[in-house]
Amino acid sequence: MDADLDLGVIGNCAWGGLVDRHGRLVWACLPRFDSDPLFPALVAGGSDHDGAFAVELLGLESSEQRYEGSTPILLTTLRDGAGSALEVRDFAPRFVNFGRIHRPTMLIRRIRPLEGEPRIRIVVGPAAATASTDPWSPAAAIICVSSRRR
Prior knowledge:
Radius of gyration: 15 Å
Strand content: over 45%
Structural class: mainly beta
Number of helices: 1
Oligomer: single chain
Order of helices and strands: EEEEHEEEEEEEEE
Shape: globular
Low-confidence stretches: 136-147
Distance between the termini: 34 Å
């Protein structure tokens, strides 16, 4: 897949990532900005899954991306040819607790069906930039899948 530079930015001032219009996290240096990229699919080439954290809608026809209001929450809507749709809500939490700002190395991806019965595939393909890098370094990912419609 050619690199698509129409990307959404997510992060919490401790780490940052880039999400393409198809719901794939294609760039993220974890656990900090100065770390080697754990998800380098944007520049790595190779297959669609090498170095990406993908939420794929089977039979994808179209997609759109926007931020929720004036927040750093990225919404990606994926639609298939059968009329099904889903929303992927991506964000990196940042909060105040006991008077201190906490920025955990955490990505929250909430997947919610919008229409029909979407069929999805979730692929987590971290890649090490060098042989000395462990692709399963202390990076946290939380995946919440909701079957309820609102």
